[in-house]
């Protein structure tokens, strides 16, 4: 049996002014055939799971192409066409192909194409034909569409945030593709799209934890292959942005629809719980100081580069500097100019510069610093987080600058903090630092929940703020909670409204 594997992954923040080009992808993942296998074998990510799953089943896995980039703005048409040409060339070479297994995201946007994944799946379908099964993994932040469901044979979303089940989902995808080829299952999918957008919400806590438990109960029923709660990605202004539920049964369309509607109603009842009030950076620091614990982690959710923000926001940085903390650290601040200057001057010298706040007007003004250059690095380390463990991370040159009692990690590539490795690279043991500031919404929790004595999430204006009403949406379908007042409307009332509207 021959199964082709590949990846096209991008979470597009349409409010970002950073256009996504071929160079953007090449800074992260741009891998042809053999390199794809080398870079993902033994790594706990989607493709790593597919490779191991195929090995266990003694299936011949054929790599096609892998394009993955850090979340940013809209992808250029030229870049998308180049990516498609790589897939077309490599897929067309394969003789006697049995199935295709892809790692996609679900929230990609190209110039003129709101639904990247739907378009791409259709493109792959045209290459391989109607008789070849197509299975794809998806991020739970996917903005799901009926075109995706119609074009693929099976769509499997991760359920955990942090996405520590990426490897397992890739492994499952290969197994499901195998079952499809053997005609052991007839996947039947039903997608339920809710009039709801939610901010980034960890699966470690309620309400997502409760919803996942409810989905798991449904999966234990005979005939249900998968039931996934997709959070959607609220920082993408497309008509179908929002929460959805996808239920997959083994040849039972009625059961798929009933189950998806049941879970959707359960989610809708909990909609208020997705919007807790979070402190400002200043309030978060004040709380951390009163706790007298070590370490206390403060995550700046409004400038999370994992959601397409610039990573050079200065609101938390400025608050930490103003607090004159005796021992603290923060990372990562994106500022190639400061990195360049620091590497020219060298370790042991003093530096004066305006740091951060140079990409847009949403995340704070540049901060003038006078600091000491403590450490310079090449920015290369091995990810130790359970999420994508074993991945080689190359951030390019970085610097550790000490300003009073605050250690600031500055880099020339945007990236959120997943684990402690970035700090260790610069000689900082976060377990010994009373206050640790990081740019991330939830993925850091996979490691830091076992390190931190307390985690404080702070919010402020930014492209990944929890305050969705701060965005000027133009394309999303209305009504949409919380943009519209739907607090007193039940899910069945909304469903009946939609049915009457289209009849």
TrEMBL record:
List each copy of the Microcystin LR degradation protein MlrC C-terminal domain by range: 299-475
Instruction: Give the domain of life.
Output: Bacteria
InterPro entries, alphabetized: MlrC, MlrC_C, MlrC_N
Task: Using the record's annotation, list all stretches that form the Microcystin LR degradation protein MlrC N-terminal domain.
Answer: 2-288
Q: Name one Pfam family in it.
A: DUF1485
* Name of this chain's protein: M81 family metallopeptidase
Q: What is the lineage of its organism?
A: Bacteria, Bacillati, Bacillota, Bacilli, Bacillales
